[in-house]
Structure formats: structure tokens, C-alpha cells
Design a protein that fits this description.
226 residues, mainly beta, 8-stranded antiparallel beta sheet, two-stranded antiparallel ribbon
Length: 226
């Protein structure tokens, strides 16, 4: 249940934050992928998303996310950047067709304006990541496989200042709705500030599949952004 009382505060943060009168939003994104021909099965990529209110669009960086990284120290407030909800991530996938095995992952930050120095010192600040693998092992009967797969996704934060400031994944101080559409998160199904890991075992035969999945999920305390 979401708490909507206007006077409630958590860690000195308002629980209820009203939307602006003109809350029409604009979102743009891009994905770049690269497949080196000398390493078969390897895919590398970069993704970037920019999310703003339409009334706050003032520069090309608000429209094209590849130009929205105004680098600067974390302790200096940039009024232009503070109005943008930004996400940037790097991802990879390695697929071995002969071994029936794949390994993949993605690491992202909630903002494209970190300096390299800040990122190297505190890479866990404002981060989220996903890593997983899947492996098919041949059974005696041709075309039948035993599959084992696992995936871990973390959007919960680990730095005290980020936790106290509710600076979590998919949530933003200026774009009140956060990374949502009609109240539904656009990204990972586990949502903001939660961690999930699963292990799956399955029998596979062409399009037929019977499996069993175990999952551990850790959710954040509930708070409302409406």
C-alpha cells in the first residue's frame, strides 16, 4: 500500500511529491552494438536513455542522449542535468553455439555526467547490473537437453548517502513519475531498489520445455512517487 499523506517524510525526504501541472514527458534513447568478427559469438553494446518534461527541453542534449553527458563532480549541482533523468549502460553477450552456452551482462548508472575519476572511486554509486548464463547439456536421446540457467539483477543501492536520499534506480527528484508509463516501470520487472536472483532447471526438446525455478527477491521499503 502506498502512503500518500503529504506530511510524511522518510530520511528527511518527502514521501508525497505532486506532479507539475504540465507533466507531459519526452523520452529518447539509443543502442549501439558491435560484433567483432575475430571473436565469434561475442556482442558488445552501449545504451543511453534521456527522460525529461517537455517544458524543460532547451538543448540538443535533452533530445539526443548521446550528447547529454555534461561531465562534472558529483558535489556540484548542475541545474540542466538535474532536470534530466538519465541512464547509461554497457552490455555484452558471449554465445557458444557449439557448447550450447551463453553468458551475458549489463552494468548501468543513473546518470551520464560522472567524471571518470568519480566512477573509478565509487563505481557502485547509482549503479544497477544484471548478469546471467544459460547452458544446455545434451541427453542420451537426440534433440533432448537438460538446461541450467541463472540470473542476478541488482537495482538496490549500497552507499549510505544514496539510500538516505532515496537516490535509487528508476526514481528521480525532478521527473516525479520516474522511469514509468501509466504507473508501470519500463525497465526490469523487479522494479526500483530491489535485488533478485533465480536458478532454473529444465528439460528442453525443440519448442517443448518443462522446468522448475527458484527465486530470491529482496524488495525495498515502500514509498510513493505519484
Amino acid at each position: 500500500m502506498c502512503i500518500r499523506h503529504r506530511d510524511y517524510r522518510i530520511q528527511e525526504n518527502n514521501v508525497y511529491i505532486p506532479k507539475p501541472e504540465n507533466d507531459k514527458r519526452f523520452m529518447s534513447g539509443l543502442v549501439l552494438t558491435y560484433q567483432p568478427k575475430w571473436i565469434p559469438g561475442l556482442f558488445l553494446g552501449y545504451g543511453s536513455v534521456n527522460h525529461v518534461y517537455r517544458d524543460d527541453i532547451t538543448a540538443i542534449g535533452d533530445i539526443l542522449p548521446i550528447f547529454n553527458g555534461r561531465k562534472g563532480p558529483d558535489n556540484i549541482v548542475d541545474n540542466t542535468i538535474s532536470k534530466r533523468q538519465q541512464f547509461g549502460s554497457g552490455f555484452f553477450r558471449w554465445l557458444s553455439a557449439e557448447g550450447h552456452f551463453e553468458f551475458y551482462g549489463e552494468y548501468g548508472t543513473r546518470g551520464n555526467s560522472k567524471t571518470l575519476n568519480d566512477f573509478m572511486i565509487t563505481p557502485e554509486s547509482g549503479r544497477a547490473f544484471t548478469f546471467g548464463f544459460s547452458h544446455l547439456m545434451s541427453l542420451k536421446k537426440p534433440g533432448h537437453y537438460f538446461q541450467i540457467s541463472s540470473e542476478m539483477t541488482q537495482t538496490g543501492q549500497t552507499i549510505r548517502e544514496d539510500i538516505r536520499g532515496l537516490k535509487t534506480w528508476y526514481v528521480h527528484d525532478h521527473v516525479v513519475e520516474g522511469y514509468t508509463h501509466n504507473g508501470q516501470v519500463l525497465g526490469a520487472g523487479n522494479g526500483p531498489a530491489s535485488n533478485v536472483i533465480f536458478l532454473e532447471l529444465a528439460w528442453v526438446n525443440k519448442m517443448n520445455r518443462i522446468g522448475f525455478q527458484m527465486e530470491r527477491r529482496l524488495d525495498c521499503p515502500k514509498y510513493a512517487r505519484v
